[in-house]
Amino acid sequence: MQKKQFKTSMTPSRIHIIGKGAIGLLLSYYLANKSNNLVTLCQRKKREEFTFSYQKLNLIEKINLTFDNVHEDKISFLIIPTKSYDVVTAFLSIKARLTDNAVIILCHNGMGTIEKIEPLLSQKQSLFFLTTTMGAFKKNNNLLIHTGSGPSSLGAINQSAIKHKISVFKFLANSIPHMSLSENIQQLLWRKLMINIAINPLSAIFNVKNGALNQPQFALKIFQLLYEAYLVANKEGVKLSFPEILNSAYTVMAATDQNYSSMNRDLNLGNKTEISAISGYIVNLAKQHNIEAPHNKDVYSILSAQYKK
């Protein structure tokens, strides 16, 4: 059943989403089908328009999308749910079309993109980051399978976003389930990174579903990967509770036990992974702080080498 469209001072006439990856299509489904928003899918090159469908258990619905094949309309509300390594390229491809007070929302695994995007914005443009533990994958080019539910959280990055965060949050929360608004963006980003570190590399290297990582043979490796990241976070001034980090990682594993992580899928399909923005990010910061991070370095090396084969 569709909700009535929620109106705020920041309610856009149209939502633009870049790319046709699983999370982008999942957000499109909730924003278009659940609240009757007008959602336009941006493709970096003019391509054939697909019909995308959403499936959860026995429910199958067409995702109500339009396609941005003109590349001329102004963009006031933009979501970039691409791979971390594609974020800057995706942003630059539409930067000239952004309105002076546009809302830009990043949504990806890992870290390292905010410091590249924020300097490119004007003073009135608002930058947010959206994290989600929802799980989905594309069974084929046209069919999205929703495999796991979970909380999503929005955080404001710059001053303009802080000013408008309540309106943007209420607008999104009207469509996307289990939404929360984070008042501490660094905590939000690092907690998401910790979950990525615990699940993505090992699920890819050992080719297992998320739930398999609950098995005892993975416990020490997960502990080591997370503890290295925890030490780096402390040096970065981000105070986290290590027991809470471990608990959160295992909670997400259990909630998404039948999911394959995005890194697992990328590796199996021969695609580039986001390991540079996850364990690679930790390795680089550890080096700056003179911290040893051999376990993150190992998984980073393994997965980087796998892609190059």
Automatic annotation (TrEMBL):
A Pfam short name: ApbA_C
Keywords: NADP, Oxidoreductase, Pantothenate biosynthesis
Annotated GO CC locations: cytoplasm
Reaction(s) this enzyme catalyzes, per UniProt: (R)-pantoate + NADP(+) = 2-dehydropantoate + NADPH + H(+)
Single Gene Ontology BP annotation: pantothenate biosynthetic process
Ketopantoate reductase C-terminal domain mapped to chain residues: 184-305
Record-listed E.C. numbers: 1.1.1.169
Known pathway: Cofactor biosynthesis; (R)-pantothenate biosynthesis; (R)-pantoate from 3-methyl-2-oxobutanoate: step 2/2
PANTHER family per UniProt: 2-DEHYDROPANTOATE 2-REDUCTASE, 2-DEHYDROPANTOATE 2-REDUCTASE-RELATED
NCBIfam families the record matches: apbA_panE
Name assigned to this protein: 2-dehydropantoate 2-reductase
UniProt organism field: Pseudoalteromonas denitrificans DSM 6059
High-level lineage: Bacteria, Pseudomonadati, Pseudomonadota, Gammaproteobacteria, Alteromonadales
